[in-house]
Amino acid sequence: MPVVQVADAKVHYTTSGSGSGPALLLVHGTGSVGAPVNWGSTVPLLDDERVVIAPDLSGTDATTDDGGALTVEILAGQVIAVIEDAGLGPVDLLGFSMGSTVAAAVAALRPDLVRRLILVAGWAHVDSDEYLRNLFTVWKRLGRSDAEAFSRTVTMTGFSRGFLNTIGRDAVEAMLPNMPPTPGTLRHVDYDLTADIRPLLPRIQARTLVVGCLQDATVPVEHSRTLHAAIAHSAYVEIDSGHVVMFEKQEEFVARVRDFVSAA
Question: CA 59, CA 50: separation in Å to the nearest integer?
């Protein structure tokens, strides 16, 4: 599997699929498991007509670095390096949750590498939202003191109540290990608390789709609406799901992505 050196990080990424269409690069959200847990069931639904690239950024188990604090510039630099190393740019770039802040930064800093941009369940900063600031702070505290409570909390806020009740107890319990509070995960949470991409949003030139999740108890849908308002000429859609929309409403999510990247 490909690895690219970026400063002190050895960034792992995967590629799958083929086809003549622009490559699609998926940027994962918070959590040390990274791309496999975010995109494992989604990639096969998207790689039939194009190459799909899925990097694991610093903080994940697959990528090694010095363990220092993460910034927008560091993570965006890793995605830029992956695009260049894969040699498939300009790409269609999709970021989920934490990954939306990274994807937006890449589009702003290197417009030559991004054809289209999709931001899913994202935010620009947490300073003015006491709910989000406190939620990430609770994650940070629980991650250091009670691993089970951390995993239950992120599962509870990651999905809508209706979805959790529909899949049932055994399935919910099976999901708990998907986001363990490793040191890498907690580095991501620290990043979530401090990242601020507001100055970069006016610089985005790529055609952009912002996807908000109506029942999102992690990042309230108002943050997606704010991103849409800040990105000139962006399109906006809402999906009636919790935060992890690619699991909860997979068919609708994939259709939205396909329609946007395929439109003339």
Answer: 28
pLDDT, residue 19, reads 77
- C-alpha distances in Å from residue 91, one per residue of 2, 49, 132: 17, 14, 31
> Is 125 designated active site?
no
User: Is 228 tagged catalytic?
Assistant: no
Of 32, 160, 216, 234, which is the active-site residue? 216
Q: Which one is catalytic: 12, 28, 58, 97?
A: 97
CATH number at residue 48: 3.40.50.1820
Q: Is 97 a catalytic residue?
A: yes
Q: What pLDDT does 106 receive?
A: 98
Spans in the chain with pLDDT lower than 50: none
Q: Residue 108's domain spans which residues?
A: 3-262
**Separation of alpha carbons 12 and 232, rounded Å:** 33
